[in-house]
Amino acid sequence: MPRRILSLWLPRFGPDLSLRRRPVAGAFALVAKLRGADRLVGLAPEAEARGLVPGMGLADARALCPDLLTRPADPRAEAQALNTLRRWATRYCPWVACDGADGLVLDITGAAHLIGGEAALLADLTDRLARIGFDARAAIADTRGAAWAIAHYGRVGSIVPKGGAERVLMPLPLAALRLEPDVVEGLERLGLRIVRDLAQIPRGSLARRFGPGPMMRLDQALGSLPEPVSPPPEAPSFAVRLSLPEPIGLISDIEAGIARLLERLCQHLQRAEQGARRLLLELSRVDGSRIQLEIGLARAMRDARAMQPLLVRAVDGMDAGFGIDMMRLSTPQIEALPIQQITTSGAQAQDDLADLLTRLCNRVGFEHVTRHLPADSHIPEKGFTIAAAAYSAPARDWSAHYTTTPPRPLTLFAPEPIAGHGRAVPRRFKWRGQWWRVVAAMGPERISPEWWLDDPAWRTGLRDYWRVQTDRGARLWLFHTPQRDGWCVQGEFA
Predict the structure, then answer these.
(1) What is the CA radius of gyration of the chain?
(2) Within 13 Å, how many C-alpha atoms sit on residue 88's CB side?
(3) What's the CA gap between 115 and 122, in Å, rounded?
(4) What's 281's domain CATH number?
């Protein structure tokens, strides 16, 4: 059976997606910073009608269209939306892959007759996309390259008959072969304008100058070289369900169902050498309503006995209504958990700490239990970062990050000014309502601000730090700012 490929191009995917979420009236464009300036990267039809083109600077665009409405482009959201469309398109055939940042490719070989034929499939696909707000161009041909070329540079909605790809391709421009812009520009300097020109010249001379790329793309479009449609592998999904012959409402019955679900789920995880980081329990009431309970885990787990108390605590006090007739347990987030050799090292202590974090985080929130980690910065107050404890590993050795750094005080606070002038350490000063006399001083240690970051606290410039011993026994950390000729206390040593 000859292959049949459908290429789908969404020429205004970014603007259509943004307007679908938040509609506006008038000229609209997406903006991104390119080559050091804000430029247009996506245009709505109204903006194109006003003479704007992609790549134009935002200042020039506003000069042509003063009422232009803009939003920043979001490539990550567009990639997620395109992948969602890819999964949606599997309604037509099982082999669907993303094609660039604004297109899909479908291998509809042997599947078109299920929709009523290729024409019916193509019309149904584009009509559904139009109803949800996406402008689409699509074409069907024997090869992926030919379908892409016709969708981008041919007649909208074209269906190339079997064996007719070569006839349709020859009059198209060279860019229809998916060549890089600089390669197209180089070929046009040689007088090659359309695909027919490229197919008629000797291959050897062309390959020596431009490499194998142009001829490879031509062979793929004509079908001489295979180009399969390879969908990305789907992430494994682990879920188990329990349908009950009679509704249940007692907490003890629900706990028994949870134990049975957990046992089956952990068996699936064990076979795949995966561990759960989140568990989602869905309970269906007989009146059609649903209850969803989700818990997080501070480490990847597949031990049913350890996870059961967490789920049991989550369902405590739950209202079962007129009864529950279905239970489903799934893992929205998983993590690799290979089988390990049993040892007598500190692995048990680490697991106990992770279990403690799990209990705490499920009570107060995963974002509220944090830990400090060393950071690569010579600024004292930036020598650490704060991360969620459940999703970060503790630092093995803090001292290893400060081997070349002079001692830092145990207590750091915002700089507090004291009276003093000049570079010499003040012999006596008043701080926090008390007078302090300096017995000994060691320094200075000069620290410059990070010029690549605009930190308001360090706009005064460089600082000269001193470690001073006072007559009250306290060891303080003082610094002098030469630019303003002032002294401050910022820390206290243990």
Answers:
(1) 33
(2) 12
(3) 9
(4) 3.30.1490.100
**Which residue(s) pair with 479 in the sheet?**
465, 488
CA distances from 226 to 142, 145, 182, 229 (A): 11, 10, 25, 10
Are residues 82 and 152 part of one domain? yes
Do 125 and 153 fall within a single domain? Answer: yes
User: What is the pairing mode between strands 28-34 and 69-72?
Assistant: parallel
Cα separation of 274 and 172, whole Å? 50
Collapsed DSSP state (helix, strand, coil) of residue 353: helix
- The answer on 419 and 468 residing in a single domain is yes
What are the strands, taking DSSP E only, across 108-201?
A: 137-141
Q: Say yes or no: 86 and 181 in one domain.
A: yes
Instruction: Let me know: does 142 contact 158? Beta carbons within 8 Å.
Output: no
Beta strands 28-34 and 37-43: pairing type? antiparallel
> What is the Cα–Cα distance from 50 to 268, expressed in whole angstroms?
58
Residue 52 dihedral angles phi and psi, to the nearest 5° = -85, 150
Q: What is the pLDDT of residues 103-139, one digit of tens each?
A: 999 999 999 898 899 999 999 999 999 999 999 999 9
Global pTM reads 0.61
* pLDDT surpasses 60 at 345: no
Q: How far apart are CA 217 and CA 316, in angstroms?
A: 62
Count other C-beta atoms under 10 Å from residue 40's C-beta.
Answer: 24
Say if 56 falls within a structural domain.
no
User: Which residues, including other chains, have CB under 8 Å from residue 44's CB and lie 6 or more apart?
Assistant: 12, 15, 16, 19, 27, 28, 29
CA angle 183, 160, 226 (to 5 degrees): 55
Residue 477 has pLDDT above 90, yes or no: yes
